[in-house]
Amino acid sequence: MATRNFVLTLVFCVFLFGFVVAQPPLNKAEQEAVYGVLESINSAVPWRSVFPDDFCSSAPHGVVCDYLDDDQGGVSAHITELSFGYVSDYSPNPLCAPNATLNGSLFSRFTHLTKLFFYRCFNGKSVSFPDFSSLGSSLEDLVFIENPSLVGSIGRNISNLKSVRKLILTGTNVGGKIPVGIEDLTGLEQLTLSRNNFSGEVFVNFGKLKNLKVLDLSQNQLVGNVPGTLGNGSTELLKLDLSFNGFSGEIPESLKALKSLEFLDLSYNRFGNFGVPLFLGEMSSLKEVYLNGNFLGGRIPEIWKNLGSILGLGLSNNGLVGSIPASMAVNLRNLCYLGLDNNKLEGTVPEEFSSLESVNELNFENNNLSGKVPFTANFVAQIGTKLKLQGNPELCVEDELKSNQFSVATTSLVQLKLCNKKPIVPQYAIFHGDSAPQAHNSHLWLLVSIGFLLLFSL
């Protein structure tokens, strides 16, 4: 039995050795292209002497080779992933030097590249965003994160990257208009173009991007109306972030077609004078909604019945008036964060908020709220300094709550005035079943009578 197992093991090893030996080498064109890219991102490293062999047998972390079937029925070796810039000890990709450059023509040799990733590579001299259209139909992930020296614009030929599923460009100085060619990337699942210098109106037909799950255009200089096409086809969309731009007009009702949407952030734009959108009440999948820093105005509507999944809600700095609906607390039972600060809200704080078990921050600062703070000592202990009530001069707190040991660290409660104490009513002795005033009068007449008797006896 032992002999039989030994023979089988030997046969397997011979087979495996033969399989490994039979693997073809990386072709010279791709080998040279890898050297070219490595030397462009960090010329101080002698890449050719450190990695003199086939990159498919020995390569720095981040350079991935794979063996793929070719058109002739055989197998060929190709570079499939290139990742540069230190991310963590678990991803020690080749470091980028301050003088790193980026030549788009170098990538034309990578006919099977699926992933191209740059993290904090371009921090020195300006580097123009290259033309990657030569990569053809193989590329799936094109990612640039925290590259402030990357400048230029994205050309319409970006539409040649037909297989791209993830296009991420964040933390750069790439600008200009967002090219309409992006709408031709119909397989796109994530489009993140945040924290760049993109400007002007957005004319992309998002209705064509039916597989899109994440759209993040935040922190640019985009203006005009939100494209109404956002609700026409992107039914898979889970996250929409257009915050910190200059979008104006009305928040389009077409967004309510995004039935799967969980995260919506339209904060710090110029939406105005149309109130909090009523159609939000129909978007039952929402978990986070942030509309801070606009000019919505109006009252907080009663739209919370079907929004029990919401964890975070931000309506700060919107010119909202009227009272805070108790229905918010009644229906938003999973609420963790609520921001209503810097509005013109008035009336009392609904006591229903004190029954929210999952909440860890309530911000009602700088409104015109009044009356007694309804929260219990246990609720205050739960939230601590995240219970923000200052800036409401007519709000008051009971002495017992303010002096509670848990309230000491809660600055907003310390700053609030004490609620008025009840006036002390004097207690009178009651004689022979008479009322207090009658007893008082009888006692007074008795004193007067005694005085007269003393006076006439003199």
UniProtKB/TrEMBL annotation:
Signal peptide: 1-22
Record's keyword terms, sorted: Glycoprotein, Leucine-rich repeat, Membrane, Repeat, Signal
Gene3D superfamilies: Ribonuclease Inhibitor (3.80.10.10)
Pfam families: LRR_1, LRR_8
InterPro entries attached to this UniProt entry: Leu-rich_rpt (IPR001611), Leu-rich_rpt_typical-subtyp (IPR003591), LRR_dom_sf (IPR032675), PGIP (IPR051848)
UniProt GO cellular component terms: membrane
Keyword presence, Iron: no
Compartments where located: Cell envelope; Membrane
Domain of life the protein comes from: Eukaryota
A Gene Ontology BP annotation from the UniProt entry: response to other organism
UniProt xrefs under PANTHER family: LEUCINE-RICH REPEAT DOMAIN, L DOMAIN-CONTAINING PROTEIN-RELATED (PTHR48059:SF36), POLYGALACTURONASE INHIBITOR 1 (PTHR48059)
Name the UniProt record assigns to this protein: OLC1v1006978C1
Organism classification: Eukaryota, Viridiplantae, Streptophyta, Embryophyta, Tracheophyta
